[in-house]
From TrEMBL:
MF terms in GO: oxidoreductase activity, acting on the CH-OH group of donors, NAD or NADP as acceptor
InterPro entries in the record: NAD(P)-bd_dom_sf, SDR_enzymes, SDR_fam
Residues annotated as signal peptide: none
Lineage summary: Eukaryota, Fungi, Dikarya, Basidiomycota, Agaricomycotina
Protein name in UniProt: NAD-P-binding protein
Database matches in CDD domains: carb_red_sniffer_like_SDR_c
UniProt feature coiled coil, ranges: none
Gene3D superfamilies linked to this entry: NAD(P)-binding Rossmann-like Domain
A Pfam cross-reference name: adh_short
Superkingdom of source: Eukaryota
Length: 241
């Protein structure tokens, strides 16, 4: 990047490990990117902090717990000195938790915590980031969802399991459509990263994080406003709602 060019700006939630960490790692391979990596415990995010020395892009780490609404509402104070001038080009709502319950065994408090983290959190993060997105050049919001949130596919894929998780991702998908309806000037995508080898995906998963994330970044950097409201897989296939 020449000294006069503005960087492309990114905010990734849940950046301490797994898909979020790999997103940040790949983004930082380019001098053009400025990445705000949000995690709930920056002190413990050793792998994330380790990217600082080796990266070409610029890394800023902020504290953000997406299940804590006060923490989200406080985020603009941390973001203003970093993104105040440039705005935000890409918001990636990645942080998420899973549940191993079924419809007839679920604990309603756990269900609410999963929905709080996976759907209400991304909704509020999108709200507080809106002024920064409005200033940005790309105006893209990417929600990391799951095929588990698809009304047509979820039961076929995992049967009765992951009930709270599936419902939370359906809510996230609906958030995508409602955000698009309200703000047609933004480009909002909901995307399944595939079954990825992370703490959540487990060792048996099909994809290495590198492959999933390079697919995700190809998609998110090439989407146009005409793609807003799409439900995609990491390889660009459309997922039935
Ligand atoms: P991991 O469990 O490996 O990592 C989850 C990340 O989310 C961690 O960085 C964790 O932070 C963060 N996180 C969890 N809760 C919060 C919170 N309240 N506030 C801030 N950060 C939080 O999961 P993956 O990387 O695999 O998953 C990332 C996303 O991809 C999720 O939304 C998941 O649903 C989705 N996904 C993953 C699939 C897979 O196969 N792996 C398949 C389909 C979708 P901390 O270190 O602090 O716990």
């Amino acid at each position: 990047m020449s000294p006069t060019t503005r960087p492309t700006t990114w905010l990734v939630t849940g950046a301490s490990r797994g898909i979020g960490l790999e997103l940040v790692r790949q983004l930082l391979a380019s001098f053009d990117n400025l990445v705000v990596a949000a995690c709930r415990n920056p002190d413990k995010a050793t792998a994330l902090k380790g990217l600082k020395g080796s990266s070409k892009g610029t890394l800023h780490i902020i504290q953000l717990d997406v299940s804590d609404f006060d923490s989200i509402r406080a985020a603009p104070k941390q973001l203003e000195p970093i993104l105040g001038e440039t705005g935000l080009d890409y918001l990636i709502n990645n942080a998420g938790i899973a549940s191993h319950d079924t419809a007839f065994t679920m604990d309603p408090e756990e269900f609410l915590q999963v929905v709080r983290t996976n759907a209400a959190g991304p909704a509020l993060v999108s709200q507080v980031c809106l002024p920064f997105l409005e200033k940005g050049h790309r105006k893209v919001i990417l929600h990391i969802s799951s095929t588990g949130g698809s009304l047509q596919s979820a039961v076929g894929v995992v049967g009765a399991r992951y009930a709270s998780y599936a419902m939370s991702k359906s809510a996230l998908n609906m958030l995508t459509l409602k955000q698009k309806a309200e703000r047609p000037d933004l480009t909002i995508i909901t995307l399944c990263p595939g079954w990825v080898k992370t703490d959540m995906g487990g060792k048996e998963a099909q994809l290495e994080p590198e492959e999933s994330i390079s697919g995700i970044l190809k998609i998110v950097t090439s989407v146009t406003n005409a793609d807003s409201g799409k439900y995609l897989r990491y390889n660009g296939e459309e997922i039935p709602w």
